[in-house]
Each structure stands twice: as structure tokens, then as C-alpha cells.
């Protein structure tokens, strides 16, 4: 049995769901009537993307969906500072309108790298959406078009976010308590 780190809930399932409905309200008119490709940045975005695309469906928005695996975290809570493509998306993005989805905007390196990468591959327009934003931690100046919640500089887990590859399955977002 793997012990969970001591953590306290920051956003429960209901709060996340309500905010996703609001986000869809914010983005639906920007995305409608477009041949839209939603690209989730793995691994953290899988749960958020799954919930978001089902609410977009209820607004008659039917994107293609693909994923790219970018890596910048190599265990624990420390970033290496370098982002690399571990697994590319397979969809052709030339001339396409993209909606890039990530779990959290932290230093900004991941989304900045992803946006530049897809523009280089010929995407015509890119919108970005993150569930969480930690503006205090920004190293690369990057703002997402749609942000679920702005949070302080605390390490969070759950709802796709991991601690050493675990706890992604938690249906809520929690703050990890630092051990003394
Ligand atoms: P950058 O720094 O590139 O970070 O904007 C984006 C990626 O960093 C990871 N990240 C976290 N993962 N709890 C996590 O589990 C956190 O508090 C956290 N902050 C950043 C995450 O993989 C994200 O995609």
C-alpha cells in the first residue's frame, strides 16, 4: 500500500466541474464554426481534456483530439528547465486552429515550447487553456487564453497532476504539505 503524501483539498470535484462549465462559456464562441483540433499535453492534461471536451460537445463543438507528450519534470517537485518532445502528436496541424490544453501553467516553458512547435508546423491559430495558473513561478512570459484557477506557488496533485507519477487519479486537486 502506497501512502499518500499529506495533502489538503484545494478544489473539489464540484468546484472543478462548475469552473469547466464557465470556461466553456468563455471559449465556445471563439471555437465554434471552426475545424478545431484539441491537443492535450500529456500526461497531466488527460482528465481536464476529457471533462472539457464533453462539455464542448454539449455546445455542439466537435474537435479532433490528439495528444503530445512533453517532459520537463523528472521526479519530485523540481523542474529540469528543459522541455523535450517525448512523443509527438500525429495529427496534421497545417492551417488548423488549435486549442492546446495543459493541466498547469507554471514556469511557462511547456506551453511556450508547444505553441512555438505547432506554429512552426503550420498551425494558423492557437488558443491555450490551462486548469491552473501559478503566475508567481513564470520564467518565460506566457499567458494562457483561458485559465481555470489562478493559484499561489504551492505544489498540487490530483486531477491529472502527479507527485512522482502518482496521485493523478484523484478526482480533486489538493495541495501537498511539505514535510518538516
Ligand atoms: P511549466 O513550468 O513548463 O510547467 O509551465 C508545466 C508542467 O509542469 C508540471 N507542474 C506541476 N505538476 N504539480 C504537478 O504535479 C504542480 O504543482 C506542478 N507545477 C508544474 C506539470 O506537468 C505541467 O504540465
Number of helices, counting only DSSP H or I runs of 4 residues or more: 3
Which cofactor or ligand species appear? xanthosine-5'-monophosphate
Q: Structural class, please?
A: alpha/beta
| Strand line-up across the major sheet | 4-3-2-5-6-7
Q: Give the SSE string.
A: EHEHEEEHEEEE
Mean pLDDT: 92
Task: Please give the alpha-carbon distance between the first and last residues.
Answer: 23 Å
Q: What fraction of the residues are assigned to beta strands by DSSP?
A: 25-35%
How much helicity do the residues have? Answer: 10-25%
DSSP E strands, number: 9
Shape: globular
For the sheet with most strands, the description reads:
6 strands, mixed
What Rg, in angstroms, do the CA atoms define? 16 Å
Low-pLDDT segments: none
Task: Offer a quick outline of the entry.
This protein is an alpha/beta fold and 180 residues long.
Amino acid at each position: 500500500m502506497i501512502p499518500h503524501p499529506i495533502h489538503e483539498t484545494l478544489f473539489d470535484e464540484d468546484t472543478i466541474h462548475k469552473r469547466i462549465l464557465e470556461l466553456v462559456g468563455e471559449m465556445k464562441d471563439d471555437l465554434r464554426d471552426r475545424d478545431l483540433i484539441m491537443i492535450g499535453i500529456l500526461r497531466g492534461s488527460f482528465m481536464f481534456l476529457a471533462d472539457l471536451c464533453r462539455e464542448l460537445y454539449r455546445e455542439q463543438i466537435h474537435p479532433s483530439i490528439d495528444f503530445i507528450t512533453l517532459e520537463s519534470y523528472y521526479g519530485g517537485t523540481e523542474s529540469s528547465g528543459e522541455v523535450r518532445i517525448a512523443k509527438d502528436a500525429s495529427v496534421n496541424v497545417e492551417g488548423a486552429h488549435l486549442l492546446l490544453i495543459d493541466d498547469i501553467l507554471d514556469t511557462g516553458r511547456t506551453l511556450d515550447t508547444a505553441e512555438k512547435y505547432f506554429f512552426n508546423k503550420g498551425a494558423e491559430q492557437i488558443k491555450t487553456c490551462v486548469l491552473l495558473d501559478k503566475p508567481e513561478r513564470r520564467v518565460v512570459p506566457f499567458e494562457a487564453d483561458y485559465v481555470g484557477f489562478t493559484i499561489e506557488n504551492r505544489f498540487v496533485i490530483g486531477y491529472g497532476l502527479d507527485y512522482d507519477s502518482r496521485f493523478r487519479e484523484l478526482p480533486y486537486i489538493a495541495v501537498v504539505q511539505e514535510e518538516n
